[in-house]
Design goal:
mainly alpha; 83% helix; globular
């Protein structure tokens, strides 16, 4: 895996993080236009797919880890599905609209399944971390933060006397959740650099 590929992967990770935070801010504090929501979700969907495809290649090249269970492909598919539903049905995700609960249940189930695959990926990364750089350990643990944050926010909303739908909306638009969900991609940039540097030094020593 070339250095330029790692740079491209890092750039997409940074774009995804920034776009996710900007999108979440506007959803929580503003009333964004439909075009902004659509464009943001399209960009994040593309970035997410590129990031995970490069991650798959990175794990195979640097750590000889293969995605035999298609975990990464499933994460890409579920992330894309959720964003497509949000793009197509955004105006209908309103308590006063028909089929509101249908859309929310679809999103809730898809999100729950997605979190399971994130945990599976985190477990795989933890196995890699035991025999690799220390930076892999916080990177692997950061994927556990995603389902944990959803669980805590969801049940906190229920304890406040809100229904399941309100709880889903709260954790889906929370800035804290958005930051924690994007945080692994910040660590990923550091992981790319560290792995490349380690491999580069090995080549230099073997050349000498």
């Amino acid at each position: 895996m070339r250095k330029n590929e790692l740079k491209i992967a890092s750039a997409f990770s940074l774009i995804y993080f920034l776009m996710n935070m900007v999108y979440s801010y506007f959803i929580v504090y503003q009333e964004p236009k439909r075009w902004f929501i659509t464009l943001s979700l399209i960009i994040m969907t593309i970035c997410n797919a590129v990031i995970f495809l490069y991650l798959k290649k990175f794990l195979k090249y640097y750590y000889n880890v293969k995605d035999r269970n298609y975990t990464i492909y499933t994460i890409i598919a579920l992330e894309s599905f959720i964003n497509i539903v949000l793009i197509c049905c955004y105006k209908n995700i309103d308590p006063f609209k028909e089929y509101y609960f249908v859309y929310v249940i679809i999103l809730a189930v898809a999100t729950a399944v997605l979190m399971g695959f994130y945990m599976a990926l985190a477990s795989k990364l933890m196995r890699v971390a035991k025999k690799s750089t220390r930076l892999m350990i916080p990177f692997a643990y950061s994927f556990y933060l995603i389902p944990l944050t959803i669980f805590v926010t969801f049940f906190y909303a229920l304890l406040q006397g809100q229904d399941l739908v309100d709880a889903f909306e709260i954790h889906d638009t929370s800035l804290i959740f958005s930051f924690l969900k994007s945080f692994p991609f910040l660590l990923l940039m550091a992981l790319y650099y560290r792995a490349w540097l380690k491999k580069h030094r090995k080549h230099q020593h073997s050349g000498n």
